[in-house]
Amino acid sequence: MAKDEGRDPTEEGRGAGAEGAPEAAAAAGGARPDRGQAGPGVVIVTGMSGAGRTEALHALEDLGYYCIDNLPPTMLVPLAELVGQPAGTGRRLAVVCDRRSREFLTQFKAELAKLAAHEVDYRVLFLDADDETLLKRYSSLRRRHPLARGSVTVAQAIARERAHLVSIRELANVVIDTSDMRASGLRRRIAREFSALTPQEGMNVSVSSFGFKYGLPLDADLVMDVRFLANPYYDPAMRELTGFDEPVRAFVMDAPETARFMTAWERLLDAVMPGYVSEGKQHLSIAIGCTGGQHRSVAIAEATAGYLREAGYRVTTMHRDVSRARQAAPGEGAGADGGSR
After folding, report:
1. I need a surface site. Which of 26, 70, 241, 246 has the fewest CB within 10 A?
2. Listed residue (9, 67, 51) closest to 165, CA to CA
C-alpha cells in the first residue's frame, strides 16, 4: 500500500457493512457468520481499481481459499457448484468480480440472488480508497486505469468508476477503506473477517533440528546454535539415542546452563513472534542446530515447539538429521568428525 498505516479507517460510513446496513446485508448473503466457523464458502472481492483487490486475493489464498481473479459474474454459480460449495463439502472459493467485466454492473446483483437460491454461503467484500490515494497509487505503479481509455484521464476514470459502483457498494457485507492502510494491515483485517483463526494461529511456525556438520537449512528465518550445551554423545549409554529418548532429554533439559538458555530464548521469542504476526508473515521457520542433529538440537527443538504451542501458535516440527544419526555405523561418530557431535 502506498501510505503508512496510521489510523485504520476500515469502517467507512456504515462500518463493516452488515451491521450498519441490515437490508443490504440480507440482500448480499445474510448475517455475519459465526466466528466459530472457518469463514464463508465464497468471498466475492470487488471495489475500486487500485484499492487493493489483488492484495486481498493473496491474503485470502493464504487463508486457504481457492482464488480466481477477474471472474465474470455469470460464472459465480457454475464455479461454486464445481468446487462443491452448495453442498458445503468443497473448497472455499474467493473471486474478484469488477468493472473489467463488461456485464459486471448489469449482472452482478442477479448473480448474487442465484447464489442465495443455491444456498451458497457467501459474502461480498468491497475495497475502497479516497481519490487522492488512488491517484498516487496509479502514478507510482505506472499502470493504466481500466477505464482510462482514449482521452480519459486517470482522475476522470476514478470518478466514473466510483459513480458506477454506488449500487454495488450497497450490496457489500464488508467495506474496507485502504486509504491509510499498508498491505500488512489489509491482510490482518481480512484475516479477522474471513478466518476463525487467531492472529497467532494464522502464522504457520516450523521448528526443526539439524546438524551443522550436514549444512545449514536454506529456508530458516531464525537459526539457534546450541553446541555450547553439554553433549550427551560422550556418554556411551546415550551415544546411540536421540533427543526423543528420555535419558537424553533429561540430560539436556535438566542442566543448569540449559535452564538459563531457555529463559533467555523464550524471552527472545516473546519479543519477536508478535512482530512477525503483526507484519503478516504467513510462515516462520525456526532451526535449532547442534553438531550432528541427534541429541541437543532435537531436545531443544521439541521444547521450543511446546512453548510456542502453549502461546497459541500453530507449530509443526521436523528433525532433519536424526535419521542420519540412526543410520550411522556403531563407533563411526568419533572418528568421522573428531569426536564432536
Report:
1. 246
2. 51
